[in-house]
Amino acid sequence: MFSLDNRVQEYAWGSRTAIAALLGQPPSDRPQAELWMGAHPAASSCIELDGRKERLIDAIAGRAEAFLGEPVRARFGAQLPFLLKVLAADQPLSLQAHPDEAQARRGFDAENAAGIPLDAPGRTYRDPHHKPELLCALTPFDALCGFRPAEALREVLELVAGGPGDALVPRGAAPIDAAAIAELVRGLLALDPAARRELVASVVEACRTRARGGGWLARPCGWALRLHELYPGDIGVVIALLLNDVHLEPGEALYLPPRRLHAYVRGVGIEIMASSDNVLRGGLTPKHVDVDELLRVLDFAPWRVDPVTPHRVGEEFVYDTPAPEFRLSRVELEPGSAWRSSERRGPEIVLCTRGEATVVDARGTARDLRQGGSIFVPFASGSYSIEGGGQFFRATVGG
């Protein structure tokens, strides 16, 4: 087993206190958005191996069978298939979506053939992988994700009707299905800058009225007003109203398959995903927005979002998803107790978010684990125990 030395990613929407507090550090003078745990080439964790510091991605490449196990290596190659993060959002993230496997491979190959450097600001595909993801809330957490069911969209579109966007709104009994939503979003993104500003101003004014009037639309209208403060005139303010607004309490989770438009709005959570950094943005950002590619990738079908409820196995709470690359669970231990892993799926990362413990593997190797710390458990280490007390997240490979 190996203690992990992890990278903090600084983005403008991050928190100056949340990740610092988890790590037992004073508030940062810069926004800390994500703590990455894994072997992604953009910010691989490091371990101490044979008396020297080595990137986990390199250690895995050289010892794939021992670190990953033959079944995982055969399925995913000589790479860790998941990436674990702590995400801390003080401000909303951009509207974004992630490609499916075929889209990611096609886009990555096309940009490579075009000679676009991997770190170019205009690059869309950073790797050839899809990016399903699961977020488990550590604090109350708010998100926008997937297009609302048709009946809710009809009421939302009343905020657009009658103003500069009136011609884009489906009429009468016309169905609000994937094709209608695609046409609407395409039309919004195609507006010239002046028309965008005029439409956003009209919708924001309508939102002010609805936010004061109560009812279910008051909450999404409130988010639209907040987004407009941050990104005045951005058409993403209008598009965000089309998305389900989801609130999670600590311990609840949200699964996002590829191709669903979404934006995390506020809160701190544990995020696990296929090991990819492919993001197609749709607004609410100063970064590159590839409209044509976004429209090709998005799933426009209306979607009713249900938070993921974990099932309990003793002290372990398991969050099931269809993603083959990852599985997340949460272990809750009273002080002085112990938990032992049973089913082994391959390599694991164990993260402590509260308390402290000693992790002991089948070979007798022991590692201390305190709040904010994490351990990589290679497949060859076998089963292990967590002895102590607190809250621990266990990231491993899916079914």
TrEMBL record:
- Alphabetized GO MF terms: mannose-6-phosphate isomerase activity; zinc ion binding
* Keyword tags: Isomerase, Metal-binding, Zinc
The enzyme's E.C. designation = 5.3.1.8
Q: Which residues form the Phosphomannose isomerase type I catalytic domain?
A: 1-149
Q: Which GO terms describe its cellular component?
A: cytosol
The cross-references to InterPro entries, in alphabetical order and at most eight, read:
Man6P_Isoase-1, Mannose-6-P_Isomerase, PMI_typeI_cat, RmlC-like_jellyroll, RmlC_Cupin_sf
Reaction(s) the record says it catalyses: D-mannose 6-phosphate = D-fructose 6-phosphate
Domain of life of the source:
Bacteria
Q: Active site annotated at which positions?
A: 281
Task: List the Gene3D superfamilies.
Answer: Jelly Rolls, Phosphomannose Isomerase, domain 2
Residues that bind Zn(2+), according to the entry? 96, 98, 133, 262
- SUPFAM superfamilies linked to this entry: RmlC-like cupins
Q: How is the cofactor bound?
A: Binds 1 zinc ion per subunit.
CC cofactor: Zn(2+)
PANTHER family from the entry?
MANNOSE-6-PHOSPHATE ISOMERASE
* Similarity field: Belongs to the mannose-6-phosphate isomerase type 1 family.
User: What is the protein name for this chain?
Assistant: mannose-6-phosphate isomerase
**Originating species:** Sorangium cellulosum
Which gene is this protein's source? manA
